[in-house]
Fold these 2 entries.
Entry 1:
Amino acid sequence: MRFRVSLSSAASFVVLLTLLAIPSFALPITGDLHIAGLGDAQVASTFLNFLCQTTGNPTSPCPAGYGNFQATSGTQSFAPYSGDVGFIHSINNATQPINQNFSLLNFLIFDPVAGFGTVLPPDVALDLNFIFTGTQGQAQCLIPPSPGQNCTPQLASLVTAANPTGLSPFNLQNTQTGSTASFSVLGTARRISTNEQSSFIGVFSADFTVPYQSYLPTIASGGVVTSPYSATFTANIVPEPGTMTIMAGGLLLIIGSISLRRRRQRA
């Protein structure tokens, strides 16, 4: 008895295997989330405090250690949260060190109280895992200000084995009207109801009406600078090893089927 495997049958089998692998990704978190702080952010050499707006704020009281924000827009999984409000946890470099892995669960959460959101109960949380060092140099950090200059400060208070030169996470740039500051993070976007997870990248940014040379000495000397902020988070699915194995096996099946079919055609 001859056993024949057609290409279409092999492809159908791969589709079936892939579908069997999908349940763990039934509700993955994907898309972009844009937020703006309702309260400002306080920046110091070793911490970033997100403040809670309490006067006329549209959220319930902030949990300890959190500031509040509003989602200005969202796509895909985050689209239902556009306009909703939530809380974002402050960062302390003693427990969330720069340039090394850590775990800050519930870094960003949406307000679960009825009346403050359209998705009730909220089913998305962001956990923070990594803060990148800045990518600018130090040559222009302390020279007379001019538009187009950039700087990533080095601070003795940030020196660790993972950050031996004490690089700040901030990328600073002077503009014609002041300056901008930004830093980048990594983390895990988590669906609360199923614990399904996707990775995310995040970029925080702030605008100042003065050049960065005006506030760098304050931070370097242990002072605090306060500014409004915004952030963008982009979540993407990371396939599990088991899913990749199934898909790879299916691909090998197709290749083997094609090879078998060609040999029979030549016979």
Note: The CA atoms of residues 38 and 57 lie 8 Å apart.
Entry 2:
Amino acid sequence: MRASRGRPLLGPSGRIWAGWLLAACVILVTGLGAAFHGQTRADGFDSAVDSPFITSFGGHYHLLLWLAYPGTLVPAIVISVAVAAYCLITGRRGGAVLALAAVPAATALDDEALKQVFDRTYLGSLSFPSGHTTSIVSLTAMLAVLLLIPPQRPGTRPARVLIVAAGCAVSALVASAVIALRWHYFTDTVAGAAVGVGTVCALALILDLVLARHAPRSAVATTQASTSASSRHAS
């Protein structure tokens, strides 16, 4: 149990990939945000991409609401709490913190900072980045970190991959729905996905740093306790 509590989320090689991925997400969001700053209508690219979605799903408003629902906070919070509880039961405290922090941190970054800074609107509402997409993608990215990065229990890989693949599929459906509902442009959803992935990468890197700093203290404490117990047993 002690070993699992100190287990890193990413590991040495994972941290390198997470660092590069975080940098790419930051560049993507800031680049798109700068390009669309203050925009009040779609440009030619977004119009070309969005139109097929809007046309194809025309007349299916209630279906689109259901497809967009996984991107709302209620299901995201329920799943996050369930994952955090499982991590605590299995001794992965870093995983529990990541599960609880990923969606709130990503959506808060959207709502309290990025939307205000880039001021892009769709039908009068701030739209960049897409909060629905950010929420579901951050949830999926969190699951990917916890389920796909080794070490993992042998024989469970197909199930773990299936869960993450399902999250990716749901993320695509949510993004498609918010475009068809005319809540967001396509590039809003791209930026939302980048915010979700980047936030999870940043949190995992920070948590690994914290775990690494505390690991030596834990090891010393464990050694001292073992030595003390051995002395009492010898006496």
Note: Residues 2-217 form one domain.
